[in-house]
Amino acid sequence: MTDLAVLSGAGKRVRRAAVDWTGIAFLAGLAVVILLPLIVTAVWAFAEVWRFPAIVPQRMGLGYWQDTLSRNDVWTALWLSLGITTTVTAISAAICFPAAYAFARLDFPGRNLLFLAFLSVQAFPKFGLIVATATIFLTLHLVGTFWGVVLIQLVGTLLYMIWIPVSAFQGVDRRLEEAARDVGATPMRVFWSITLPQALPTLFAAILITFVSTFYETDAAWLIGLPNVRTMPMVMISFINNALEVQYGAVLFVFLWVPSFLLMLAARRVMGADAFARGLGG
Amino acid sequence: MAQVRLSGIAKTFGKVTALDAMDLVIDDGELVCLLGPSGSGKSTLLRIIGGFETPSAGAIAIDGVDVTGLPPERRPTAMVFQSHALWSHMTVHGNIAFGLKLRRLPKSEIRDRVERVLDLVGLAGYGGRLPSQLSGGQQQRVALARSLVIEPKILLLDEPFASLDQHLRERLRDEVRDIQQRLGITAVFVTHGQDEALAISDRIVVLADGRMQQVGRPGEIYAEPKTAFVAGFIGAMNMLDGLLADGEIAASGLRLAAEGSGPARLAIRPEDIALSEPADGRAATVRRMIDFGAHVVIDSALADGTHLRIQTDKAIRVAPGERIGIRVDRWTVFTEDGEPRRYRSDTLRSFRDVRYA
Ligand SMILES: Nc1ncnc2c1ncn2[C@@H]1O[C@H](COP(=O)(O)OP(=O)(O)OP(=O)(O)O)[C@@H](O)[C@H]1O
Ligand SMILES: [Mg+2]
């Protein structure tokens, strides 16, 4: 008995000794780089007075929340941003998903070239591309319009909305499709009943990434949208640039960060972390 | 009811010839095994029958109807894939019912048929599970059930149990044979396990390099291989390179009666060799003895070092390095051209003489 106890105790000690210090160091580093700014900003959102030498704010409260959230331009911008983002994501999915399926499954001449063309949009210096587009949009009277912003942001979504779905469709085992044909399904039926459901979690990940990144897109929104179309990030930037108190920006940051973070968490729960990993080339 | 006729089937992928000049008739209710080494074209042939590949040449007819141009969903075939290929987003019931729903059968009938087929494969009560909640063997049974439920005329199985352990594999293949005979369906079973082929098939088709080497009943293929390849591939076999001359074949110091002249290959089954007193041209040196319990296998070396496998009585004991005499009861000589020639030693006759004396 005693012998056994000693042995198992020794076993535990060995296991405890194998602490992964490198891993912990990395984690600590990441925490400082990512979490610290988050925390500081979050604290700012609730600080009413916070002057330089103090480590914690002198006075906390919800005053700035009231100020910020009672502004009309904030709510207008929020609804506008949601409208633009939803439109962009929906159109992008409608264009890109069928294209992705074609790239993944069909073998047509010029396939690789076309695929490259889709992706190469991302290789241009983005700002230059937007400026060039802006000059074209000017002549088309698209600058400063809802559809102008939608169009330019659509271009920015192509990379993720093609790339991730292509690997999603490629990740569907051909034999699953063949098995469905085998028991009598037509190619169309196979797509709806087998291929699409199998690829869905990863497609959903692509939609989510596109939605969030489009919502926070600034360059195009700035050059094409302003002054008539002011999206949420534009409002945030103007708060900061116009030297209103830092708190306005911080409040909006927390206000927007919380829902998108919760959305991501929910998505992870629903489809499992591997859907993201698979989408990004797994 | 369902007869498959392949005429002149060939298939090339780019420059690779996967299949060539296949002529084969599979009779109604027959279970035919496609047997051959990796890359010999077994899967390709099966996929051509199932409609997943179109042959580059030739035609395929089922019950006299040409189906060469028909897609899989319009052929009376059903395939069981090696990787089971179950749809992970559907339950077991959903997987099996899918084919029936496509046929727009009434709900109650679908339920009955799914339950009956689950019963048949020994998985009653598993309908509500997801494929990921089943063991490998159970997953393969579901795949089998999914194919059987649509009542195919022809069942195609592509190494369905290759990923399972041996015990389970043996049990499932016996079950497949049992079900196939009970339902009276025609089946084509791809395997590269010769034991599997010998155990369950009515006929075996041996493939090598995309060509049919031999078609025959299991015992026939084992006892009378037509080519050196089949001889070496089915069952344990000693294959020796030899030279024919003066009514004898000489191979690695072994000399046996044979007609003809020139280079030839000598094939001897381990169980066709018995031990005797060493003599000139009839001797070997023991390297290792393997005791299988039911019999003993002696790995020995001939004069030039070539291995010779001998299967003999379980009571026999020899030591490494020991010199033993061998007596070959049956042997086959394959020449470059012409039919193989089979020989039996007269010791068999003398054995009979002893019995009837
Ligand atoms: N889609 C394809 N494209 C190109 N070559 C192929 C394709 N499918 C099969 N082949 C080639 O055809 C030949 C026969 O392949 P097949 O899959 O039929 O072999 P197999 O007998 O089933 O082998 P295994 O026992 O390894 O499954 C091989 O040389 C293979 O490389
Ligand atoms: Mg194969």
Automatic annotation (TrEMBL), chain A:
Protein name according to UniProt: ABC transporter permease
What family is it from? Belongs to the binding-protein-dependent transport system permease family.
Membrane-traversing stretches: 21-47, 77-101, 113-140, 146-169, 190-216, 246-267
Record bears the keyword Ribosomal protein: no
A single GO CC term, please? plasma membrane
GO process annotations (BP)? transmembrane transport
Entry keyword annotation includes Membrane: yes
- Keywords attached to this entry: Cell inner membrane, Cell membrane, Membrane, Transmembrane, Transmembrane helix, Transport
Which InterPro entries does the annotation name? MetI-like, MetI-like_sf
| SUPFAM superfamilies in alphabetical order | MetI-like
| Alphabetized Pfam families for the sequence | BPD_transp_1
Q: How does it sit in the membrane?
A: Multi-pass membrane protein
TrEMBL record, chain B:
Any Pfam family: ABC_tran
Spell out the molecular function terms from Gene Ontology. ATP binding; ATP hydrolysis activity; transmembrane transporter activity
Sorted alphabetically, the keyword list is: ATP-binding, Nucleotide-binding, Transport
- PROSITE patterns for this protein: ABC_TRANSPORTER_1 (PS00211), ABC_TRANSPORTER_2 (PS50893)
Question: What SUPFAM superfamilies does the entry give?
Answer: MOP-like, P-loop containing nucleoside triphosphate hydrolases
Enumerate the spans annotated as ABC transporter domain.
4-234
Q: Tell me the GO BP annotations in alphabetical order.
A: quaternary ammonium group transport
Q: Which Gene Ontology cellular component terms are annotated?
A: ATP-binding cassette (ABC) transporter complex
The family line of this record is: Belongs to the ABC transporter superfamily.
In its UniProt entry, what is this protein called? ABC transporter ATP-binding protein
- Its source organism is Pleomorphomonas carboxyditropha
